[in-house]
Amino acid sequence: MTSEMTSRTFVMKSRKQQGFSLIEVLVSVLVISFSLVAILKLQSYVELKSEQADLQIQAVRKAEQQLMLWQNVGAEVDCHGSFSTKKELTLANLETCLIDFSPLKGKVEVETVKTGPTSGVILFKKMKVTVQWEDREGQSGSVVLLGGYSAYSPLLM
Asked: Does the keyword Transmembrane helix apply (predicted)?
């Protein structure tokens, strides 16, 4: 009898250890599912931040390009990105010479400082270039670069 009980006990033990229970499988599937969802969300977040960084770099380049164009006061420059609009750049027409900001939005503000109320001589121009963008999720951002140009010195930043 003891050998028969021993074999039954062995058979019962071996049946319990043959695989995983349904609960264990469901819990593991749930854990793996949550992990995959978290990884996908992280990948989406990283991609969005990468796009925002790329847009910011583009905006800085456009603003720098505008300020560098204004460094050419006294020379014939290509305004509006077209060779047909070459004109001599002076302090008087500085704000009319703009680059093409597309696909971003650019805004230029120029403040003129004159020597006196009646002289009409332009002494200094303060320049503010603002470039704005909107990412695919509708979040907007902007970059602002300031500069100045005097008749007596090159572009100051």
From this structure: yes
Q: Find out whether the peptide bond into 103 is cis, omega within 30 degrees of 0.
A: yes
Tokens of 107: 């805004």
For the chain, give the percent of residues with pLDDT over 90. Answer: 38
Q: What are the backbone dihedrals phi and psi of residue 102, each rounded to the nearest 5 degrees, phi first?
A: -65, 145
CA 143 to chain centroid: 10
User: Nearest Cα to 68, choosing from 152, 151, 147?
Assistant: 147
Say whether 129 sits in a helix, a strand or coil. strand
The CA distance from 22 to 37, in Å, is 23
**Tokens for 17?**
């250890």
Whole-prediction pTM value? 0.68
CA torsion sign for 89, 92, 96, 98 is: positive
